[in-house]
Amino acid sequence: MGLPGHRRTSSHKRRRAAHFALKKATIGICKQCQKPALPHQACRACGYYAGRLVLDVGRTTKRLAAKVLTTKKKAKAAPDAS
């Protein structure tokens, strides 16, 4: 099994770690609704990608709203432990 040959100095560690910084996200504009959108991904606001509809945003919104309502109902129905 190999062992480290030499001690890694602090400057060497910092030089190596210089590449670990986060990069800024590239954000474009949706051609359909003019809202910010990530490149190469469908727009989360309108569901369009490359000029055609690929996501049913209305259906997704309805499902999310229904999920939130059911969790609120369950929270109200649960007996209070305190």
Structural description of this entry:
- The protein is α+β, with helices and mostly antiparallel strands and 82 residues long.
- The protein has a domain at 46-77.
- It is 35% helix and 10% strand.
- It is built from two helices and four strands.
- The N and C termini lie far apart (58 Å).
- The mean pLDDT is 87.
- Gyration radius (Cα, Å) is 25 Å
Distance between the termini: 58 Å
Strand residue percentage: 5-15%
Helix content: 25-40%
Instruction: Summarize the biggest pleated sheet.
Output: 2 strands, antiparallel
Strand order of the largest sheet: 1-2
Elements, N to C (H/E): HEEEEH
Element layout with pairings:
Blueprint: H1 10-17, E1 28-29, E2 36-37, E3 48-49, E4 52-53, H2 57-77
Quickly list its features.
82 residues, 35% helix, alpha+beta, 2 helices, flat, two-stranded antiparallel ribbon
Quick overview of this protein structure:
With 82 residues, the protein is an alpha+beta fold. It has helices at residues 10-17, 57-77, and strands at residues 28-29, 36-37, 48-49, 52-53. The strands form two sheets. It has a two-stranded antiparallel ribbon.
